[in-house]
């Protein structure tokens, strides 16, 4: 890499930025604008997917976003777009570094390396654990994880426990594997505080009188467990669920069919609305059976919202008090906690979360990974 010119980095494996639903998308939206603000050493292009990102290429906070086609199929969407993205990075952008996000897109790591680019992979979670995949898809995702470990010059892992596991399983390559978590996003205040109540009323909610969940309407988010537990507990609150499905299917339709006076589906919401929903929630619940490191939980924690998380390893990596966790998949255990008369017992230390999961420090750690590539 020539020290006198900017290093060209192409970021692939995500749907796009800004304001596109998904943990990987939120991660990239936070990291890469900060990176180009931090140093003038990098020229960053993010490849998005049509139709999540429409129109022509555009600039966003110092980075270039280029939409490329993707197959409209849950099995082929990511891999089809990433294939085009890697070729675009090499032959159109002339990129020196390709940064792949996710173990599915990491299947293209060997091709990117064969084409002469330095390869970084961010491991956002062991996606082969997701309930939506069949046996073949899970095997392919496991292969993607191995492609990441073997082909990448550096592997960033957002979960501390998964980092430790991968290092144990890959002793010869453990020096390539680095733990850099997601951050606690400070969501913008887009309206006056006095207008937030009216915003909530528009969604059928009252301040302090609802339990909040945020996530895509997919099985691994565990929203069916939450709804079951909510009905068992019958608390004096509504249940508000924010998010939509990646692809309309029987599972998402089954969830939406349970909407009623006390269960409100709010759909996908922008950062400003999310901030309002977090700030005025009586309790935030994340019932996931699979995560990388949950940005939604970190967003809620950063706003000092009382919270309950399932006790899966990535959620435990946030290192909250035992009272803030419940047994994953156990609706009775969750219902018992929802019956609490005062949810303030589940409040966390927002300052501690902000210090431990700081996007500025996380961006600086990512920049060091890029700097180390010059010596590879």
Question: Which helices and strands occur, and which strands form pairs?
Answer:
Layout: E1 7-12, H1 23-38, E2 42-49, E3 58-60, E4 63-68, H2 77-91, E5 97-101, H3 109-114, E6 118-123, H4 135-151, E7 154-157, H5 160-169, E8 177-179, H6 196-202, E9 210-214, H7 223-233, E10 238-242, H8 250-256, E11 263-267, H9 271-279, E12 283-286, H10 295-302, E13 307-310, H11 313-316, E14 325-326, H12 331-338, H13 350-356, H14 359-373
Parallel strand pairs: 1-2, 1-5, 2-4, 5-6, 6-7, 7-8, 9-10, 9-12, 10-11, 12-13, 13-14
Antiparallel strand pairs: 3-4
Helix pairs in contact: 1-14, 7-12
Give structural notes.
- This protein is globular.
- α1 (23-38) links the parallel β1 and β2 (42-49).
- The protein is α/β, with parallel strands linked by helices and 376 residues long.
- It has helices spanning 23-38, 77-91, 109-114, 135-151, 160-169, 196-202, 223-233, 250-256, 271-279, 295-302, 313-316, 331-338, 350-356, 359-373; strands spanning 7-12, 42-49, 58-60, 63-68, 97-101, 118-123, 154-157, 177-179, 210-214, 238-242, 263-267, 283-286, 307-310, 325-326.
- It has an 8-stranded mixed β-sheet, with helices on both faces.
- It has 14 helices and 14 strands.
| Rg calculated over all Cα atoms | 21 Å
Give the low-pLDDT segments. Answer: none
Residue-averaged pLDDT: 95
Which structural class is indicated by helix and strand composition? alpha/beta
Number of helices: 14
Distance between the termini: 10 Å
Helicity range: 25-40%
Number of strands: 14
Topology as a string of helices (H) and strands (E): EHEEEHEHEHEHEHEHEHEHEHEHEHHH
What percent strand? Answer: 15-25%
């Amino acid at each position: 890499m020539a020290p006198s010119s900017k290093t060209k980095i192409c970021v692939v494996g995500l749907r796009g930025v800004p304001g596109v639903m998904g943990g990987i998308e939120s991660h990239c939206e936070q990291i890469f604008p900060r990176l180009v603000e931090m140093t003038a050493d990098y020229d960053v292009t993010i490849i998005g997917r049509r139709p999540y990102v429409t129109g022509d290429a555009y600039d966003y906070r110092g980075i270039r976003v280029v939409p490329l086609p993707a197959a409209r199929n849950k099995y082929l969407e990511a891999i089809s777009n990433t294939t085009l993205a890697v070729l675009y990075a090499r032959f159109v952008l002339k990129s020196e570094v390709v940064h792949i996000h996710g173990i599915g897109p990491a299947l293209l790591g060997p091709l990117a390396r064969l084409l002469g680019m330095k390869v970084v992979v961010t491991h956002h979670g062991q996606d082969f654990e997701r309930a939506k995949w069949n046996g073949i898809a899970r095997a392919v995702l496991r292969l993607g994880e191995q492609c990441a470990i073997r082909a990448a010059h550096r592997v960033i892992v957002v979960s501390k426990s998964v980092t430790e596991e991968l290092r144990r399983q890959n002793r010869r390559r453990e020096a390539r594997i680095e733990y850099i978590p997601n951050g606690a996003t400070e969501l913008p205040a887009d309206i006056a505080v006095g207008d937030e109540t009216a915003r909530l009323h528009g969604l059928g909610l009252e301040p302090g009188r609802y339990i909040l969940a945020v996530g895509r309407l997919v099985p691994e988010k565990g929203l069916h467990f939450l709804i079951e537990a909510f009905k068992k507990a019958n608390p004096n609150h509504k249940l508000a669920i924010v998010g939509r499905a990646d692809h309309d299917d029987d599972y998402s339709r089954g969830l939406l069919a349970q909407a009623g006076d006390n269960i409100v589906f709010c759909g996908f919401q922008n950062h400003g609305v999310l901030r309002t929903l977090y700030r005025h929630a009586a309790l935030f619940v994340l019932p996931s059976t699979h995560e990388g490191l949950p940005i939604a939980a970190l967003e809620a924690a950063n706003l000092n919202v009382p919270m309950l998380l399932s006790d899966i390893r990535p959620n435990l990596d946030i290192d909250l008090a035992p009272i803030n966790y419940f047994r994953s998949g156990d609706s009775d255990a969750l219902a018992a906690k929802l019956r609490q008369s005062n949810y303030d017992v589940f409040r966390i230390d927002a300052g501690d979360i902000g210090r431990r999961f700081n996007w500025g420090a996380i961006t600086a750690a990512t920049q060091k990974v890029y700097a180390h590539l010059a010596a590879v």
